[in-house]
Design goal:
Growth Hormone, Chain: A; 0% strand; MFS transporter; single chain; globular; 17 helices; transmembrane; mainly alpha
């Protein structure tokens, strides 16, 4: 495994510890610490979800344009660390929105350039495994963050500033690790000349059917992929789980993802990344069927496992598949564009599923999405999917 991949994995681990520490206490900080309303939390959550979309393609394009993916990634991770500092004096919705929005902009900026660095460092035959290792370390950080926040709140009850300061320091360590231990020379050399331009990106998309299929497939399948929270709420409505165990579903899905990320990356390298990516969506389709037709702990456990396997088969495999079909000089831009399609698709899925739930109930909404996803998978198979 290339050293750059491992270092970037540990950078993401530290950053996710920091981010999830804040995410774990932010609802409590907003409603209890500041006494703001649930509506205020809804506004902040909307900013949190939408903040990455606008900056993703911009970050990827700038990284390719100037052949400096590391510099853009450092800027993105640096903004994430700065956002924690801004939480210290935050006392209202505007200040909290600014801090949350800055964190999401940082995430959008860094994601494409970071994935381009991984792709540049990894031999083509190990792209899936390399992204799997990175995503496994990233997920480990996401699991450790709430645990760290819990122990800090136990040690200093009600001291939210302590959580924010420690989170900022952990994120800062990640930035320093990225600056000191990641070599950009190979990525910069691979980019070469001429410089990337918007016209060049348009020509690439127009001239390569595979790139267009990746963008279309990512957008369509993501628009039919509902969030974990909605799926767990369906289980809760069906009495498959109780409210006491609801938070553990997220933890369980993360553990399955952590364990399966590297094996699925190896499978993608061996049998084809498009096949594994499509197989991941078959798993979430099965999760819809299980959640919609069964009840009890067995159904909840099966849904949890299928969700974790879905993430393992798609989250790192998609950028690996994208990196393999585009020139090195366009990797950050195209990977960012694909990830933007995924983010927009999932946002649309949340809105449409929520509307269907309101109009027809959770069970009907889930079966509609299952039928639509099955039809989309059949269509993707007919047109060749990501091939």
């Amino acid at each position: 495994m290339p050293g750059t991949v491992l270092v970037l994995g540990f950078v993401s681990l530290l950053t996710d510890i920091s981010t999830e520490m804040v995410a774990a206490v932010l609802p409590l900080f907003i409603t209890v610490g500041l006494g703001l309303s649930p509506m205020a939390f809804g506004v902040l959550d909307s900013v949190y979800q939408a903040g990455t979309v606008a900056s993703r393609v911009g970050g990827g394009y700038v990284a390719d344009r100037f052949a400096r993916p590391k510099a853009v990634a450092v800027a993105g991770y640096g903004l994430g660390a700065l956002a924690k500092l801004l939480l210290l004096p935050a006392a209202g919705v505007a200040a909290l929105s600014a801090a949350t929005g800055l964190d999401r902009i940082g995430k959008g900026l860094r994601t494409g350039p970071r994935d381009a660095l991984i792709a540049d460092a990894a031999p083509e035959g190990t792209l899936g495994r390399s992204f799997g290792v990175h995503r496994a370390l990233d997920t480990l950080g996401a699991l450790l963050g709430p645990v760290a926040a819990f122990y800090l709140m136990v040690a200093a009850p009600g001291n939210f500033d302590a959580v924010f300061v420690v989170a900022m320091c952990v994120a800062g360590l990640g930035v320093l690790l990225l600056i000191g231990r990641v070599d950009e020379s190979r990525a910069a050399a691979a980019s070469g000349t001429p410089r990337v331009t918007p016209l060049g990106v348009a020509r690439l998309v127009a001239g390569q059917a595979r790139v267009r299929r990746v963008l279309l497939t990512a957008a369509v399948l993501s628009a039919l992929t509902i969030s974990d929270a909605f799926l767990y709420l369906v289980l809760l409505e069906g009495d498959a789980i109780s409210t006491h165990f609801f938070p553990l579903m997220f933890l369980g899905t993360g553990v399955v993802y952590l364990v399966a990320a590297v094996p699925f990356g190896r499978l993608a390298d061996r049998f084809g990344r498009p096949r594994v990516f499509i197989a991941g969506h078959v798993m979430i389709l099965v999760a819809y069927v299980v959640a919609g037709s069964a009840a009890g702990p067995m159904a909840a456990g099966a849904t949890l496992a299928l969700l974790g396997l879905y993430y393992a088969a798609t989250d790192g495999v998609l950028p690996a598949a994208t990196a393999a079909i585009v020139p090195a000089s366009y990797r950050a831009t195209v990977i960012s564009a694909v990830q933007t399609c995924v983010a927009l698709g999932r946002s649309l899925a949340s809105l449409s599923f929520g509307a269907l739930w309101t109009l027809a109930g959770p069970s009907t909404a889930l079966w509609v999405f299952a039928a639509a996803l099955a039809a989309a998978l059949a269509a993707v198979s007919l047109i060749g999917g990501l091939r």
